[in-house]
Amino acid sequence: MIIAIDGPSASGKSTTAKGVSNKLGFTHIDTGSMYRAVTLGLSHENIMIDDHNRIISYLENLNIKFDSNDHIVLNGENVSNAIRTVEISSKVSMISAIPEIRSKMVDLQRSIAGKSDCVLEGRDIGTVVFPNADYKFYMIADINIRAKRRLTELKQINESATIEEIISSIKIRDELDSKRSHSPLKKAMDAIEIDTSLLSINQQIEKIVKIVKQNKKET
Ligand code: DC
């Protein structure tokens, strides 16, 4: 079974996807972390965004996987914290708009998800990666609430930013993610929209779990 959860950054996708996968015993795949890992890798190798040939050869030897603790591992190294910095956040939208990178990530996502029941979160899961997903959800939230959530995350990795800086970077990212030509951020026609602005994490998780369990009973 595939559950697709899409939506803009800090709309509540990650915590919800993790909670839903725990409750249902499914594998969780945070596809945003995969684009962040590539961004980190390219930055470590000093490969510029317009250096097409080096990007292609970097992708050929790239190894991204998730370990049993849901950590993202890039070429053997756990990069779960390193991919969350302000620097990586500011570059990832540009990197994830590159068609060859998208195609490699989508192949990887389909291959990982082919092994078990999964909850995948991202921007294009219900529209491109798994257009026939069993369940599709699209999460949204008020921009101020999204910024506060991002600030809390940054504090956890000892990064600092003002709320105004975060709001501005979220707006830039929303714009880039939804206007790019390849697989833009878009609500799938058949996705159920959930506004998480006033919901607790448990309420977000329960909304989805309830829908999935209800349907299972009916079929
Ligand atoms: O969910 P996130 O903020 O960690 O995602 C980081 C970036 O990755 C986001 O700005 C857009 C990109 N992304 C994407 O293009 N497609 C996905 N399926 C997931 C993320």
TL;DR of this structure?
By secondary structure, the chain is α/β, with parallel strands linked by helices.
Your description of this structure?
This protein is α/β, with parallel strands linked by helices and 219 residues long. 52% of the residues lie in helices and 15% in strands. The protein has helices at 13-24, 31-44, 52-60, 86-95, 99-113, 125-129, 143-156, 163-179, 201-218, and strands spanning 2-6, 27-30, 64-66, 72-74, 77-78, 118-122, 135-140, 192-195. The strands form two sheets. It has a five-stranded parallel beta sheet, sandwiched between helices. Strands 3-4-5 form a three-stranded antiparallel beta sheet, with helices on one face. β4 and β5 form a beta hairpin. The radius of gyration is 17 Å and the shape is globular. Residues 9, 31-33, 35-36, 92-93, 96, 122-124, 173, 177 line the site of 2'-deoxycytidine-5'-monophosphate.
Average residue-wise pLDDT: 94
* Neighbour order of strands in the largest sheet: 2-6-1-7-8
> Total helix count?
9
Ions, cofactors, ligands: which are bound? 2'-deoxycytidine-5'-monophosphate
Give the overall shape: globular
**Helix and strand succession?**
EHEHHEEEHHEHEHHEH
**Percent helix range:** 40-55%
Structural class: alpha/beta
List how many beta strands DSSP finds.
Answer: 8
Strand content: 5-15%
Distance between the termini: 14 Å
State the low-pLDDT regions, or none. Answer: none
* Biggest pleated-sheet summary: 5 strands, parallel
- Provide the gyration radius in Å: 17 Å
